[in-house]
Write a structure and sequence with these properties.
Length: 543
């Protein structure tokens, strides 16, 4: 197949390769949320304890986040195509094992293997974009597709899960991974050129025959332990409040992270290029991405629960309607890409954050009786703005990274996203939970609160789901009063959480307009980046 395109510009083969690489990205991101609807069926078959059920849900995301930096650095050394193929093989095999898991312990362990495969796939797909697309305009388009696929996968997980569970057993949510992984294993060797750092070896001599440091397993262990403990602590904080165990986990995670950073400063070949991270052209967009994911993940749970528990949609209906806000992405992403060709992309990114802030402010006006179109339109505005900003942040950071460090750079980007999401879930989730509890303590119908047993009273005051379960056991009038109060309290808490997200988005916009201004300039259609782009060197590739 010949490509009739200008030198430096990608042709048909590269775009087909991008399409193939998007398959694992879609499935890896879907697996973050695909068990949400399947967990009741898993519980019936495997009878996990409450703690085991939480680990079944969380293990995949924990391992995925913890291994991103290690896998990005490993891909730079051994070759990103090779790591994609290895990740696909592990992900496919683990998917089969998960589908036929015979105990809760087995499923938890296999979910960890899925996280290992996903960590090998995610940074490698983004890094390969850096090496497939050298023209800044084309690379921007490719990164837009990458970001859209990743965010769509997270939203699509519950939809696919709900559809499969209507016809098949819970293991089917894992088996859908197999065709895509098989296709990846067959096509990637023909479509995607190998790329790695110039040294190109894990241990021993590099391509010039010079000795190099062995792959640093101590740094790999430190990065895994730091991210695992920190994210675990933040999630437990969001789930149970700032108790001693979550607080200790956060402190230990920060201490391990500090140790990891100190070690990187002493290494000739660190896993994270701290000098690159310190540059505004790279570190700035990474921080902007953290803020974007803070709002994205921190508010996602509210919208889903509102559609199900306040708008009273079935889980499958709620999942389908939750895809409608993606229409905002279909408008915002191409508009931002066009604007980025004409003006400084930091301004366009800031505009995306302003749009996200406007959408979050709109969400604060939602009430329990708001029409569905009003809710979905508001969500479309803030999601469109967020994805537009995230796309440009990914593009700017990836363009500023040297091609031979693309894997490590992509891993840092994605680790930042995981951290931002965990912090958003904790902070915004805590706001919503605190407001809900306070309102329910004051607003229970007269005579109902005192009549409830202690456990039921606590359940009503803690979550909307708990209030719905208690209301179903009460006499009709009392139950209706509890539910009405709970829905009002939840909607109030949701509004204040979105207000918090709006404040953060305003801050992100100000950061983009001031700190990031002039770091990237505008994209050009000539195959050359603006001088500040940081397109430092041609890719090191080979077949």
């Amino acid at each position: 197949m010949e490509n009739s395109h200008a030198p430096g510009r990608a042709g048909r083969k590269e775009w087909i390769a991008l399409g193939v690489l998007m398959l694992p990205l879609l499935l890896v991101s879907m697996d973050i949320s695909i068990l949400y609807f399947a967990i009741p069926y898993v519980s019936q078959d495997l009878a996990p304890s409450a703690t085991q059920q939480l680990w079944i849900l969380d293990m995949y995301g924990f391992v995925l986040a913890g291994l991103l930096i290690t896998m990005g650095a490993l891909g730079d050394r051994i070759g990103r195509r090779k790591l994609v193929l290895a990740g696909a093989a592990v992900f496919g095999a683990a998917s089969v094992a998960a589908a036929y898991a015979y105990s809760a312990e087995t499923l938890i362990g296999v979910r960890a293997l899925l996280g290992l495969g996903g960590a090998a796939l995610m940074p490698s797909t983004l890094a390969l974009i850096r090496n497939l697309f050298h023209d800044p305009k084309q690379r921007g388009q490719a990164v837009t597709i990458w970001t859209g696929v990743m965010t769509t996968g997270i939203s699509l997980g519950p939809v696919v899960s709900g559809l499969l569970l209507e016809h098949f057993w819970w293991g089917s949510v894992f088996l859908i991974n197999l065709p895509a992984m098989a296709l990846l294993l067959v096509l990637v060797p023909f479509l995607v050129p190998e790329s790695r750092s110039a040294a190109g070896a894990v241990n021993g001599a590099d391509e010039a025959g010079e000795e190099r440091e062995p792959f640093d397993l101590v740094s790999a262990g430190l990065s895994l332990a730091a991210l695992l403990t920190f994210i675990y602590g933040v999630k437990e904080w969001a789930r149970h409040g700032l108790a001693p165990v979550p607080a200790l986990a956060v402190v230990v995670g920060l201490a391990l992270g500090y140790t990891f950073v100190r070690r990187q400063k002493r290494l000739d070949e660190p896993m994270i290029d701290l000098e690159l991270l310190g540059r505004r052209a790279f570190g700035g967009p990474v921080f902007a991405n953290v803020l974007a994911m803070f709002a994205t993940v921190g508010t996602a749970v509210f919208l889903t629960q509102y559609l199900q528990s306040v708008q009273r949609l079935s889980p499958f209906e709620a999942a389908l309607w939750s895809l409608v806000p993606a229409s905002g992405v279909l408008v915002a992403a191409p508009v931002s890409a066009v604007l980025a060709q004409r003006i400084d992309r930091a301004y366009v990114m800031g505009g995306g954050f302003v749009l996200a802030a406007a959408g979050c402010s709109w969400m604060t006006q939602i009430r329990t009786d708001s029409p569905l179109w009003f809710v979905l339109a508001a969500a479309a505005v803030y999601i469109g703005g967020l994805v537009a900003a995230m796309t440009l942040a990914n593009e700017l950071a990836l363009g500023a990274a040297p091609p031979d460090r693309a894997g490590s750079a992509a891993a840092v980007l994605e680790s930042g996203q995981e951290l931002g999401g965990a912090l958003g879930m904790a902070a915004l989730g805590s706001i919503g939970a605190a407001v809900y509890s306070r309102d329910m303590a004051d607003a229970l119908p007269a005579g109902v609160g005192g009549a409830l047993p202690g456990g039921d009273a606590d359940a009503v005051r803690e979550t909307l789901g708990g209030a719905a379960a208690v209301a179903a056991r009460l006499p009709a009038e009392a139950g209706a009063g509890v539910l009405e109060s709970a829905r009002d309290a939840f909607t109030h808490g949701m509004g204040l959480a979105y207000a918090g997200a709006a404040v953060v988005m305003v801050g992100a916009a100000a950061y983009s307009f001031t700190v990031l201004r002039g770091t990237a300039g505008r994209a050009t259609g000539s195959g050359k980046a603006a001088p500040e782009q940081g397109d430092l060197a041609p890719a090191q590739t080979g077949t």
